[in-house]
## 1
Amino acid sequence: MRMKHALIPTLREVPGEAKVDSHRLMLKAGLARQLAAGVYTLLPLGLKALRNVQSIIREEMDAIGAQEMLMPALHPAELWQQSGRWEQYGPELMRLTDRNGSSFALGATHEEVVTSLIANEIKSYRKLPVTVYQLQTKFRDERRPRFGVLRSREFVMKDAYSFDTTWEGLDETYARMYDAYTAIFNRCGLTFRAVEADPGTIGGTDTHEFMALCAIGEDTIVSCTSCGYAANIEKAEVSPSKSIAVSTSGAVPKLLEKMHTPDVRTIEQLTRFFDCSADRIVKAVAYRVDDRVVLALVRGDYAINELKLKHALKGSDAAMLEEDEIAEAFGCKPGFIGPFGVPGVTVVADRSIRGIRDGAAGANEQDFHWTGLDAERDLPGVPFFDLRNMTESDPCPKCGEPVRFTEGIEVGHVFKLGTKYSDALNAACLTEQGSLAPIIMGCYGIGVTRTVAAIIEQHHDEHGIIWPLEAAPYFIHLICVSMNDEVQRETAEALYASLRAKGCEVLYDDRDERPGVKFKDADLLGMPVRITVGKKAAEGAVECSTRAERVHTDVPLQELDAYLSAIMKRNDSHIRTDSL
């Protein structure tokens, strides 16, 4: 591609809404432009990078026998109603009504559509196992779209679905897909971890997220420093032996006493008022879990994990109560609610408060708290669960060794769905024994546009993007320092034609611009290899460098193929090398 007529609108000033590096660089380097909140146009460079990631995905999916197809983005409401997700999915599902009054959704995911298809097309175990996949635009009405294409309302996703006759067959398919995802993200140049995760509204049992490690990631990853345990913090288990407060276990039991605590409502204020540490405060947080009001208790220095709370109560949705709802249910403002005298409210507790003695808790009366609380004595019948977030001081739940926290961006997710959707949509087939049984499913997603952004987030410096070889829009950035110099121009033109004939993707800067502008744009755009045709062209040589290393080397033209081949082999790239 010749830059003289290429649509690569680079920016010198970054728009104020760009808060993270990938968003800033995608705008600055002319990869994308915003159309509306959470909606982006991918310009030619951005689309080429996206298609390169798609090519990697296709190669690895095809290698494990998955078959590509394309399903509609417009889904009839009836399918989602059959699965129960029309109501369950919530406001993120974009819904619309056609001219005939029929309800539809824009596809956020395709479990219902693909299950309905397979239910109609496969009736016998002889046709299974089958795995299908697609690369398609998805729609989700994000509450807070931000960070550019990392959290947008329209995005490209690879979603795959497997269909097996046995659970053992699902395990084998899941393992192959897990390995394929590992290969995909390695080829994309990402540093990532596969972690245990919660299935959310997709459902199912075993599930893993593939997290690109990144400081701006919205997810926290807990990983053991010794064994292989890794989990999203939403899923990370707290070891039962380490979850009970022991700091007051030797204290002499005291009687409950109501204390006047005017305007004392935060944990920090309570610790000062009672001259105690936060592990003696019973924090009470009010939720609505499905259709019931729930009071969740946790030690004052910990935080409730809403997913754990929801699962403990076998609920489908959990949301904190608003201040007016708390006043109606408890008769006081937040900060004074507690576990006593709350008829009609379900009270549950995290294991961390089990050992509290001489503790403090809200009295469900404005400006009053109880002291002298003994959890075992004063909370009879209250069930205890693992309801809190793990902290960095907690040990690994598998081996007991220390853990560390890192931030990550979810780029992929694999699920064992089982029969959740095949039961709901009547996807069954005849078994080898002649009986009818539900088909056993798995589903596997990759956020393709998000992967492109994650690559940029991990691969950049103060000058611009540093593309890994396989994801790069172009392999070579060819620069003619002076288009007015006949030798330079003719050398550059000949190189451009020769490299393209050998199958190399080349971005050729043939603009009549100052060298400094060209070099600055080359750093910003970040193609893996730069070939500069300058004064040494008269001697039959060009200057070569890699964007990652920024080491400039004069290479005779007759040795250029060997130089490029060495770079590709060093990076273990799938880019063509046979012609070089």
## 2
Amino acid sequence: MQQEIENLERRAVDYVLDGDKRLRDIETRLQSAQEREDAHALGTLYAELEAHDGFSADSRARTLLAGLGFSSEQCTALVGDFSGGWRMRLNLAQALMCPSDLLLLDEPTNHLDLDAILWLEDWLRAYPGTLILISHDRDFLDAVVGHIVHVEGRQLTLYRGGYTQFERTRAERLTQQQAAFEKQQAEREHMQKYIARFRAQATKAKQAQSRIKALERMETLTAAHIDSPFSFSFREADHQSSPLVDLHQGVLGYADTQILEQVKLQLVPGARIGVLGPNGAGKSTLIKTLAGTLPLIGGELKTGEHLAIGYFAQHQLDSLDAKASPLLHLARIAPQEREQGLRNFLGGFDFHGARAEEPVLNFSGGEKARLALALIAWQKPNLLLLDEPTNHLDMEMRHALTLALQRFEGAMLLVSHDRALIRDTTDELWLVADGRLQTYSDDLDTYTRWLARFRQQQQEELRAANGDASVTDDRPDAKTQRREAAERRQRLAPLKKAIEKLEKELAKAQTELSSIEEELSDTDLYGADRKDQLKQVLARQANCTQKVEQLEERWLEGHEELEVLEQAEAG
């Protein structure tokens, strides 16, 4: 997946097709054969094109674009007509279009809505090659990957399972690492005391020297530093109003284009709302209208006397002063505040020391997003309007933002493709669809299924519009689909039950191993009078370690077998 686009004059669909290099090579040779009127070459090349599935390439490219949120009209628009975020989607579509054995994706969900992310999850699960991706979306990782490679301290550590399993396993390793570190520190301290005491004594010099060498050979274990560099809160508003916003019979959109109508809503302090809806349904339109950056077409909008809005949107990152530092940005809105107070506040967003004085020009997207959030948090909002605030943010910052939003006492309206953020910070869901805004009473899992049906309907309409004869009415009815799904679940149930049993046994064994490691961290256990007890504990550790490894291997084999069966059932 490329990060830049050079040719801005290509049509979007053509740019995506450029990802299939072999297709373009066949087309070039076809054109040359046509110019030469070489009938034999033409016959061979048309057979090669058919074998490469080239006749359906245009349809497949448009399907990719539709899955990533592009309309039929946008498929033929020029690449240069799209914003930066949509160009990144084009790069993603081009990478997916390329037949490959190895697919490398760097933050592919950054500029996607939730419906596009769900579509991408389905696509990547069906991808037959090897996938290596970087992502800070935990739900996306859980849905797509089978292993996590963690980069820390210049080392790579491989963990089995998705991100949630990685968190659990790493937490256990950190506990063991901390115990080993504390044990080693005690041993080092004991050696150093011995060296300091006997180094100058001729009778003990040899023993002291041997301990010095042992100390040099001893591997230095790093303490388990797991503290996040981020810690902040949204400063409490000086005043509150109730309601903060009251919209009646609102008509929302751009100029003469209505996107939402008959919108009725009221926001009061403490409201915590996640806004759902398909791509282009009007989620951002709603946020912009409430923020006052988009005028209301019709209806009545009343705001509270003490309304103080904190508005986050991606375009705000571009509006930051590129030549100004984080410290100067904050000083401009807080001229009376002491510099140290501003520095302390910025430190919670990991802008420390000289970094707080560097110009924004050199900042990454994540650093700009953190600065934008810092400016909002400082201004004591009582209403937060957040449109995709986690784009560019890493896991640690997303966790810090989650905690800050949980502590926030004002009202919040959140649009995000980060399902974990929505689940952890909102207690009410609204759905924007078909030109209406309504309360959504189901949960996120139900919404993803609804969105999948909505997306499937859109894709069928697109294929029908392109004249794809595969769209027919011979699809199985809902009753048949439910029966077949039930039969599949029944066939897979024994294996799933066995895997669940293994997971419980593995968790129990890992807990036992952690308990043994804790025993071994007791320095008294290494005394001369407790050799037998130490030997017993070490034997238990070896047996338990072997048991954990065996259970992990069986668990992995079970999952692989389940995956094969599920693919066979799907086929």
## 3
Amino acid sequence: MQHDAHYHNPAITHGTHHQPGAPFAPAMTPRRSVPGLALPTPSMQNQIHELAKTLPPPRKQNTACDACRSRKVKCNRLPGQEKCQHCLSKNYPCTHFVQQATSEKKRSSAVNRRPRNISSAGANVPPSTTPRYAPSSASSSECGPSTPSGNPQLPLMVRYGFCPPLTTSTPTPEVLTFIFAPPDQNEQSVFQAGLTRSPYDAWGELASKLDDENFRAEFALDLVEVFFQIVHTRLPLLNPEQFRSRLQLQSTTTVPSIPPLHPALVATVLAWGCKFSEHPLLIADRKRPGGQSLLAKTLIDRARDLAEALKVHRVPSSDHVVIALLIEPLQNQNPDDPNGFHGFWLTSATRHLLDLGINHKSVMANIQDPENRGTMIFAWWMTCLCDAYASAYYRRKPVLDDDDYDIDFYTADPIPDITDGAPTPSPREQLEFLGYYRAAHSLARTARMMSRQLWRPATDSDGVPFDNLCTFATALTEWRDHYLNAVGVPSNFAGEWDFVSAVSSCSSDATYHVMWIILFNALDDFGIKELNNAVASASDLTEIENVKRKVADEALHGALRIAGLAGVLTSNGYLRLDPAVMHISCILAGTLLARLGRPEVSNCIAGLKQYSYAYEEAGDQANEMNRLFQRVRNGDIELNHMVSIFPRGSSPASRSSHSPHTSNAMLVDEHRPNGSPSSAHPFATATGSFSKPAIYGQH
């Protein structure tokens, strides 16, 4: 498994416990000759030695630390280190309270089993030592959920209900006790010990209120509403009415008539709400350098811990599909982050959907509940699209292929016509009305085709075959002519747009244009195969250069376009409320503009800085982009195979005047039938035309 890879020790796997580079030397003890027993001959000793190397090591009982024990992973502590590898990577205290308690229990049992001296039994038996870890339950045979007043040195997973593990039927108030438990010691260390008055102080001056059950319930309800007003509009995987009806936040003595929500789903929704909420508790928590909330980051980790503990990534179910799809964009979006598990939850959701047979039309048609069927259809298409786009963004082959499914968008119940007085359609239905599904799926197929050809070892070593390059360029051009005018930012902009309409159109527009940037980067890194091997004729060279120039022009135009859209969204504060939909587009477009020394990169930098409100890594990405831009402005060349299009001393800004696209990204795209290069695009002066969502500035 991806997230457990760093616990694997090759030496243990192969049955060796010697230091690297040291010869294997099994312990030898002197033996006394026993009559009738022949000692092993040298050849037999060699055979035994070879056999010993293939046997697993002796099982070590009761040596795992508390954190590894709760996660059910191997506890690997290297010689000479005080902490195991897992606790080092997570900055956990690496305690062994459960091991100590078990040892104390065994010692106490051994004392009770010893033969007693009848005459002095009551006087000679020493009292048993009180274990440092004591279950809060009255039963000594099982470990019940503890309370915040328990031993603060215990890892959170041990203190709050993971012994025995939480189940999917655990009441939500008990789940909130774990989710809003005080921060771990590593978070408390940011404060001086003398100034810490409450275990919650690391989360700001108001966080101590989380110790009250009623406040936890009210705070959780606020975060749920933030989720449905901001995140649900972009990721409509839940039924808001159904979720609210099952969200039982107060403890009760009566048996609820409906089962509680999945604990990992509750934790994930609350973590999303923490990213964007303006609750006074979170405002106080963000009063620190950088402006990020430590509580928000902690809730992301706890949502992931709950999902792992409840085997969301292992057991196929509809709830687990939804949870995995919501966790993936929730966490750190930097693929180099060692704790981000980038792509892990998306892969888990894909595997679950295949195991459930959702890729078969016959299976989908047999799902009787319309709500469940609609959710699974949307989950499938979200997974399908994300898998394709992510493969292009992060240079890997997609998991799914075109022939892995036969369902279509009409498997769900027909959507009624919108008439006066009819109920407002859900965000998912709105997207269907506007044709985003069909357009996105068509572009996803092109992205999947590009990924399977570009990210191959043969392409890396030999270059991109010219016929493949022409196929990609033709497919992108056809998609633009057929779909962009319908799902992108329209040229006949009129009236005010809301948050959903603005971000949806801008993201669809940007997703198309970023494909040209990806193609440009591949050509710059790998080159064209026929040019690399010097097998192209003179006529072929001319044609190849023309196609290279077209890709460069489209990539530059796309980067400028994305920078313009990012500038509009940033000026309206929308990227502060965006669940990473435009994130990768800003990075790829801004990086290309920085490599070309274009000043329009400032829009992408500003957009990433606004993203850093919810995604901390975006601030570092903005700073790195600015450093790259400054290096290029000082004379560095950042191009490889595509340097012939932008040679040294040639200004990309001057070249763009000869491009079929205008250098101003905010002018009307000439691809649009009713646009003209001389008419200014309404976005150029419409930065105040978007209406901010109702949630903005209210929490």
## 4
Amino acid sequence: MPRLPLPRTRRGRLTALGAVVVVLAAATVLWATRDTAPPAVPTQDALIDMPAAPGSAEQVKIDTTTFLPATVPAPAVLLAHGFGGDKTSVADDARELARKGFVVMTWSARGFGKSTGKIGLNDPDGEVADASRLIDRLVALHQVSTDPGGDPKVAVTGASYGGALSLLLAGTDKRVDAVAPVITYNDLAQALVPNAAAPKAPSAGTPAAGAFATDGVFKKSWAGIFFSAGSGPAASGSPSAEAPEAGQETDTGSTGAAGTAAAAAVPSVPSGAGGPRAGSADPCGRFTAAVCQAYTELGTTGASSQASLDLLRRVSPVSVTSKITVPTLLVQGESDTLFGLDQSDATARQITAAGGKVKTIWYTGGHDGGKPGPQLRAKIGDFLWDAVNGGDPGTGFSYDVQGTLRANGTPSVRTVNATSYPGLTGPAAERRLLPMTGPVQPVVRPAGANPSAVSGIPGLNGIASSTSRLGALFSNDPPGQAAQFTTAPVDGQVVVSGASTVRLQVAADPAHPQPEAVLFAKLYDVGQDGSRVLPANAIAPFRVSGLPANGNPVEVTVTLPGIVRPIEGGHSLRLVVGTTDQAFASPAAPAVFRIALAGGGTALALPVVPGTSVGTPAPVGQIVGIAVTLAIALAAVLFAALRRRRAADIDPDLAGTPLVIEGLRKKYPGGFVAVNDLSFRVEPGQVLGLLGPNGAGKTTTLRMLMGLITPTAGSIRVFGHKIAPGAPVLSRIGSFVEGSGFLPHLSGRENLQLYWASTGRPAEKAHFGEALEIAGLGSAVDRRVRTYSQGMRQRLAIAQAMLGLPELMVLDEPTNGLDPPQIHQMREVLQRYAATGRTVVVSSHLLAEVEQTCTHVVVMHRGALVAAGEVGELAAAGGEATFRVDDTAAAAAALKAIAGVGTVDVEGDLVHADLDGLPRAEAVAALVRAGVAVEQAGPRRRLEDAFLQLVGDQS
């Protein structure tokens, strides 16, 4: 038998060993991630007789399926389907729960699938009573485990229509131990006939409290979809066709893992499989007479009688939330024009007031954006398992923030976790006030309310609101029909997390008096280029009654729809108040109204919920790719370990921290110490300015950070990895330290492509479009670099550093050689990049630029750290004081006359003075004695003062 030739040298043997390890690691990953069919779940089908509804002799049959876990008895979950679906719509979710260990019962509600009876919209005497009898059946079959007292362990969940059923059952059947409604409503009357205007702002203190005022505006588009889903022939056992986009799963990854939720969450027109039922030509379809009468009234008049409102509230969770005390998980969609965040907010407040513990999740989907994906379903399953087994699932709150950058076509998403839902058991939600401007504006409602404004299309709104281009196709405000008010551009990113409010004045035109106005408010996110996006295509309809015929205004607070939207620095918000909208019932009579901001400097009140941000886990395909990459990296580490006889240095506790420098020192031959005992830390999302005079050691520090030179002592860790020349973690850093080195005869784009090709990484990983969009080069990217100005070269260098969308970007003096307008543009580039949730470290000696660009600063001098912290904190440490006065000349003279006071400067109605240790109160007293009125006194917040105080005398 021939002998295989083996490498003769030690180096060759190690190389061969490394190759073998790589192959084995890849094979292991492929084996571990191979497709394997999940274990089958046994099922039991049954058609169960239910008592007839009160006043009816009709026997109702409910079609059920029970999914059994590996071991019974076990805790049970009743899993209800969405409107327009049936039990098959939630079969996959039921199997997930059964594999987790639950006995799961699904069923087709009255009027759906193979079940008989009339649709009562979760009537307590109909659908809710049916669900309670299903618990009886599970208990009778001895399939459900019990607690020590003999009570069955039962939870209920479902989405939309099914979510409301779960709440109604929890409020009427004491055997329910936990409930997890998904994208559902609190009050169907408020959801379908909302009014966002009230004399005062909501006082709940929660982030998405709605106005919930009476005499609302009919949401005819969504209501029509609902009615159509119950008017046609039944699906006879087949799942209904969901509305566009509703079948897509939405997940954030930060919401955890475990299993159940929504399948047919969106109301839709049944497919008709199995043929029409008798009587399908009836205009009331499969609805009860009472429900049909209420819809007919709304559809024909646009208004509802008290009887109709009472009916809608009777079949809504609001009728029982005061009785729910079991652990509750509320999952609500941020892209949902049917049941907005205000519905979940109201339910959370009511159950908390009843003594129940409420946990809340807002995710990026909804009736417009998609049902929960596997990670969120897993989170729901974990909650139910903990709750029915006596655990404490907690009262936390999390919401998803969808960014503007896209990777492989998917928007970036991060989740913000808060300890509790604001305003329930802790402090009220924070509100950031943004002043608004705009004159009194007349608006016209044309005859027939036609043409109408377009705010979106139910079921497609999630797509429409994702970008300004698509949003423009789905959003239109006819000229003359809307008033507009704007805010100034925001200084930095503001994440709106809930329902904003604004105070408005509405008046009828005396020449065309009207007793009331039906109006529609929208809040647009407007970019620096004028493009606008209507977040979630959400709109707030409101009715203002009692308008005086003489044209005097009526003042109201309008609560805008609950949204989660990051408003980037430089963007503004535009409030549009119109007279029509195609999704709602508008009065047909022509009218003219005058819309104005309320007096006294009206501000837009934006809810802000602080918390801890976490990123989104990669999808399974990306996880497999990452696993393969990690396996190869592990093999490389092993090979390096054999060569260098040492292991890689990784601190897992710092895996989420972009940069930690500890005890860093660099001593050059000859004894010169460039950096000495330097320590600081950079957290995710920060823009850190490394500040210091020339020769402070900034560039040396950055060169060590990039692995270009080796420290004499100390350590640098990036995401927990210790930096060394050639360290793999360097691929997660984008840098501009040594100069760009662009080829002048090539275009900017060609230079970037050439640079990326030299890294050996796939072209699809470069994200050229995103980097160029942030850098803002426009069409100039296709010109030869020799034609570029210095500012354009710097921006191209920044775009090069951004390729691959690195998690940490390091820039050395990026504004060198730029004039003021170019510096301003560079600042916007860096802030736009940081607004994506990544981290930027920038060294500079330009104090004003650091103050305007950075969130945090590290001050170095002669190689050592002299100060670190937030920019505002360091700026406030300067020795000067500022006084706002009525007579600046007299104030300056009075301050100069005080012994020990240094420089005194006048700036507008402000006087700045170096008090040199003199208490500010004594300076104020001297000004008052001089007859000067002092309106305001405080420290002069200038980074330059603090910097000179720290290093000025030694530089």
